Amino acid sequence: MAGLYIHVPFCSQRCVYCDFYFTTTRRDEGPFTRAIEVEAERLGHEYQGKAPLRTLYLGGGTPSLLTPDALAAVVGAAHGHFDTKALEEVTVEANPEDLVGPEGADWLRAARALGVTRLSLGVQSFFDDDLVFMNRAHDAAQAEAGVEAAVAAIGEVSVDLIFGVPDQPFEHWGANLQKAVRLGAAHVSTYSLTVEERTPLHKMVALGRVVPEGDETLRERYLFTHEYLLGQGFEHYEISSFARPGHRSQHNQSYWAHETVLGLGPSAHSFWRETRSRGWRWADVAHLGRWQGLLLGGESPIEWREQIGPDELADEAVLLGLRRLVDGLDLDVLERDYGVDLLTDRRAELAALEGAGLVDVRPGRVRLTVEGAAVADAVALRLVG
Ligand code: SF4
After folding, report:
1. Ligand 1: which atom is nearest the Cα of residue 13?
2. Is the pTM of this model over 0.70?
3. From CA 76, how far away is CA 81, in angstroms rounded?
4. CATH code 3.30.365.10 for 311-381
5. Is residue 191 lining ligand 1, measured as CB closer than 6 Å?
6. Nearest atom within ligand 1 for CA of residue 11
7. Ligand 1 centroid from CA 344, angstroms
8. What is the pLDDT along the chain (385 residues), one digit of tens a residue?
9. Is the CB of 15 under 6 A from ligand 1?
């Protein structure tokens, strides 16, 4: 089984922290949906039989900027060229401002009719100060109304929130979590504000106009989030992801379980697990015009492609498995599928990490503790390579 990701690159404005591929200047849906159809046909021709879809995920960018007709064309391209008989989950990312008012209601009705089972909302904060700082297109009232409308129309809603916005009072972060829960989100993803290169935020920091929050503040917020959402009945099942029981993101779990996830759209990445010891990763060109031109001209839109050998696959399995805080890294699977005996190969590192309270080693499993999850990258790097 596999997942299919479709990248919709349109955005109404540029959020200061964003380093995804998107465009605010072009929103010509005709060529985009035609190119998606062509790419779905190309990829489906090769993988339809090998990769029946379990999940479909439209991300971006801002898929909720697609008109209902364009949304139908994109979802239809997946159904038309892949085996979707066993499809369990169809997620669409949406921004709150697109879901309010009569147009928002129309869009939600269309999404529901197309079989969308889950919406992932880029809320980031329910406070105007934070939203203005991040240059989000919505305000606090739209954030709240958008979540309400999504929950009423689709039911299954994930809310993305960002912590570590400079000078954000601690109470605001607590109130953000509280509001997401009160509004009925069954899933919450929380991310710290990260200063990525080539973003407006990077420039603001370089010019000294913004001072990022320190590690200790971020750690406190992270631990608070864990405590608060567990207290509300959520499970902390992945480093950044919290879900009510039965409401995990199936699509994202495919990435963390190292399963095949194919991608369509400009900048989309694909991972094809061909055999236990061989995989392939590739990415489409990250430019809407070039990507469309290649596909509509009958050429491949792939910018690079690499083969992944057994050692690299094994390292990836460790890094991804550690992200799963509840399920943990399955040591039997690691040995059976990747030939790695972590308990023997990394005995000293595991003992040191366990002694520091960063991992929990049980028969057959290694899990990050919440303290370990707060510094997950550093922990994981001690167990690979
Ligand atoms: S809406 Fe999302 S993809 Fe678009 S600029 Fe903002 S964070 Fe990036």
Report:
1. 5
2. yes
3. 9
4. no
5. no
6. 4
7. 44
8. 899 999 999 999 999 999 999 999 867 899 999 999 999 999 999 987 888 999 999 999 999 999 999 999 999 999 999 999 999 999 999 999 999 999 999 999 999 999 999 999 999 999 999 999 999 999 999 999 999 999 999 999 999 999 999 989 999 999 999 999 999 999 999 999 999 999 999 999 999 999 999 999 999 999 999 999 999 999 999 999 999 999 999 999 999 999 999 999 999 999 999 988 899 999 999 999 999 999 999 999 999 999 999 999 999 999 999 999 999 999 999 999 999 999 999 999 999 999 999 999 999 999 999 999 999 999 999 999 7
9. yes
- 7 contacts 267 by C-beta, under 8 angstroms: yes
Return the domain boundaries, the chain: 2-255, 311-381
Cis before 61? omega within 30: yes
Residues 6+ positions from 101 with CB-CB distance below 8 Å: none
2-255: CATH homologous superfamily?
A: Aldolase class I (3.20.20.70)
Q: Which atom of ligand 1 is nearest to the CA of 137?
A: 1
Torsion sign (Cα): 134, 136, 141, 144: negative
CA distance 222 to 161: 12
